[in-house]
Write a structure and sequence with these properties.
heterodimer, A: Rossmann fold, 9 helices, B: alpha+beta, Uridine Diphospho-n-acetylenolpyruvylglucosamine Reductase, domain 3, Alpha-Beta Plaits
Chain lengths: 253, 456
């Protein structure tokens, strides 16, 4: 159960190696937090972060295997976690692949695989989590979307479209959960400097994982439906959304 | 007074309006429907809810069943000769006072609000301004009928361990269907009040230690924004029920007249900024200045003396949509320095609080989870949205626990299972009695899950 300050007792990170996901978990951990579950393709890859959380006083830190494309297994996965750690207070969905548009252009199958992880995996695991939260009568699902999905650009339209699909799914899921006590927070970061974007050129409003985490945790405390990181992007995109197509096409990579 | 009817599947919160959760709310007009609702409860269990005046999540059961016990009409049987009243668990102190005061009786214990059900008063083992003289609520309960998890009803007396596990047991032992209370005979419905204004914490602690035993009722309001040499400056009010001969004028004509009505109401949607450091500072300054340095024998009505905030319906809305928490703890006598440290931390943090009350407790009772212990108790209201408040309260918890103190579960909205275990050393004893009465874990609450009182 979360407390009056929205401090969670249990946190699940789907995509345990995600830098943004880890930054959010780091910010969420409070003296009341008793269990954190780090779910990733390769559980060994989260060892250092798990150690950090234990040192911060979290009694139970689980590193478990999770495959975003194992759609059939997602319900059993979520039920298993809840069985072991109790009610799920906050679940952060942070897995995803970025990929390069040029690669996707040459290899349609690779593009489909990215869609399979980012969107389809989000749908199946998101619904599995939602079922559990609905039964609990409380709990928050945080979905890491991206401004890339707000209006898809030619420079990364495969990635952008997977996030557009995920974003729409998450908003709809949040609406479907209204009145159940459970809710969804959609996080729309701009360009975030992480391992995933290493070597890429900074875009305007480039931000860091810590800023995204900060905005996310504030949004959770406030009960927001959508947050942008950094927050001014909300206003930038309310303009960009309405640019005529010829101008949008000229947006730099 | 009935709570506005609860919708079947609406988010429930406590009085602090934080951490909402959704449960199936079952109306429970009588014993048969309570029993049916409990039998129909799913794996997330059931819990009785009264008027929702616990500040945190004590009367919530996310994903489970919540039994709405506060009734539309009072059910009270008064035995004038014995001075006892037998009531339905969902009967409020408000209803009870309206019925018994004109007949020359008062409730043995009342909290700062009269919108508390008798079942809730037992579950939290509430205390009032007379704790130093009369103990807490359960000390005046002679018997109760408790609905158990298996659907049977047990008649409990203070000779039964389950009676004391239910007192302070936060609803996790069963549903109080009926209770019999010993009432206090009174000659009038007025209180003769003495007021003293004290310039600092030492002054008020000394005044209370020296003189509380001369009064049935005693409590101090502290100006939490005062710092430095004014730290802990207070208005101490103490009183006793007025004998008939003490009344004059109109009051003497109808010595037992009792009228309690909310005067005003706070509308929904009040911005959270109404209570800000400036407005609270102004209020506190005024409240302190308007108090007489020393006044004796002022006749006050029951609502004015015991339930001033009940005059403002839904005053909890003043904190805006972020809600608020009430931090209440007790520390033993001798722990005056830790008490000062907590007050100092609040004062220097600048957290605006217009409600900060200090009370001297008397002896504890036999209930393992009853809050009062011989010593001092402090209750502080603060807006929950204040940045850094969570971290501050966890830090204060440490001061309180290190001093041998504990936190009041009916107010808690933030602490940890470990803090409860340290504050309540008899937790396991309580748990054993509870588990025996409810082996399958039917009784559940958000507070119980959060603080490890029951299995998650």
């Amino acid at each position: 159960m979360r407390n009056a300050f929205a401090e969670p007792q249990t946190v699940v990170l789907l995509g345990g190696t995600s830098e943004i996901g880890q930054a959010i978990v780091r910010r969420l951990v409070a003296p009341v937090t008793r269990a954190v579950v780090l779910a990733s393709r390769d559980p060994g890859a989260t060892a250092a972060f798990a150690e950090e959380l234990r040192a911060a006083g979290v009694a139970t830190v689980e590193e478990v295997a999770f495959d975003a494309t194992d759609h059939r297994g997602h319900t059993a996965f979520v039920d298993g976690v809840a069985q072991r750690v109790g009610d799920l207070d906050v679940v952060v969905m942070a897995f995803g692949v970025l990929g390069e548009q040029a690669t996707f252009d040459a290899d349609p199958e690779a593009a489909a695989r990215a869609a399979e992880v980012n969107y389809v995996g989000g749908v199946s695991s998101g619904l599995a989590v939602a079922g559990r939260l609905r039964a609990q009568g409380h709990g928050r699902l945080v979905v890491l979307s991206s401004v890339a999905g707000e209006r898809v650009r030619k420079a990364n339209f495969v990635y952008g479209s997977t996030k557009a699909g995920l974003d729409g799914f998450a908003l709809g899921l949040g609406d479907a959960l209204a009145g159940s006590g459970a809710s969804v927070l959609v996080v729309r970061p701009g360009f975030v400097r992480t391992r995933m974007t290493a070597g890429m050129k900074d875009a305007p409003f480039t931000t860091t994982a810590d800023v995204v985490a900060d905005v996310t945790v504030k949004g959770l405390a406030r009960g927001s439906r959508i947050v942008w990181a950094p927050p001014p992007l909300r206003f930038v995109f309310s303009v960009l959304r309405h640019l005529p197509a010829f101008a949008w096409r000229r947006m730099p990579a | 007074m009935a709570e506005p009817r609860l919708p079947a599947d609406a988010p429930l919160t406590g009085w602090g309006r934080t951490a909402p959760s959704v449960a199936h709310v079952a109306p429970t007009p009588d014993e048969a429907t309570v029993r049916a609702a409990v039998a129909a409860a799913g794996e997330r269990g059931a819990l009785a809810r009264g008027l929702g005046r616990s500040y945190g999540d004590a009367a919530q059961n996310a994903g489970g069943t919540v039994l709405a016990m506060a009734g539309d009409r009072p059910r009270i049987e008064l035995d004038v000769a014995a001075g006892e009243a037998t009531v339905w668990g969902g009967t409020s102190i408000d209803d009870l006072l309206a019925y018994v005061v004109p007949q020359g009786f008062f409730v043995p214990v009342t909290a700062g609000t009269r919108f508390v059900t008798v079942g809730g008063a037992i579950a939290a083992d509430i205390h009032g301004k007379n704790h130093h003289a009369d103990g807490s609520f359960a000390d005046h309960v002679t018997r109760m009928a408790l609905l158990l998890a298996d659907g049977s009803v047990r008649e409990l007396t203070p000779a039964d361990p389950l009676f004391w596990a239910t007192a302070g047991g936060m609803g996790l032992t069963g549903v109080v269907l009926r209770a019999t209370l010993r009432l206090l005979p009174i000659g009038t419905s007025r209180i003769l009040v003495d007021t003293d204004r004290l310039d600092d914490l030492d002054g008020v602690l000394a005044a209370m230690a020296e003189g509380d035993h001369r009064y049935r009722y005693s409590v101090a309001w502290i100006d939490l924004l005062a710092k430095g040499r004014h730290l802990g400056r207070s208005v101490l009010t103490r009183g006793d029920h007025a004998p008939e001969e003490a009344l004059a004028g109109r009051a003497a004509v109808a010595p037992l007249a009792y009228r309690a009505r909310p005067l005003v109401s706070v509308p929904p949607g009040v911005p959270g900024q109404v209570l800000n450091p400036l407005s609270v500072r102004a209020f506190n300054e005024l409240w302190f200045r308007k108090a007489p340095r020393h006044r004796v024998g002022e006749a006050q009505t029951i609502p004015a003396f015991f339930h001033p905030l009940d005059g403002v319906r839904e005053w909890n809305r003043l904190y805006g949509r972020g809600g608020f928490v009430q931090y209440q703890f007790a520390v033993p006598f001798g722990a005056e320095e830790p008490l000062r440290a907590v007050i100092e931390r609040f004062a220097t943090s600048g957290a605006p609080s217009f409600l900060c009350v200090l009370k001297r407790f008397g002896d504890a009772n036999a209930a393992p989870l009853s809050f009062p212990m011989p010593g001092w108790t402090l209750a502080v209201d603060v807006a929950a949205s204040r940045p850094g408040l969570g971290a501050l309260l966890h830090e204060l918890d440490e001061i309180v626990l290190a001093a041998g103190g504990r936190h009041y579960l009916a107010k808690d909205a933030h602490t940890t299972p470990a803090a409860v275990r340290r504050g309540y050393p008899r937790l396991d004893e309580w748990r054993a009695v509870r588990d025996k009465a409810d082996p399958t874990g039917v009784w559940r609450s958000d507070l119980g899950r959060r603080l490890g009182l029951v299995d998650p």
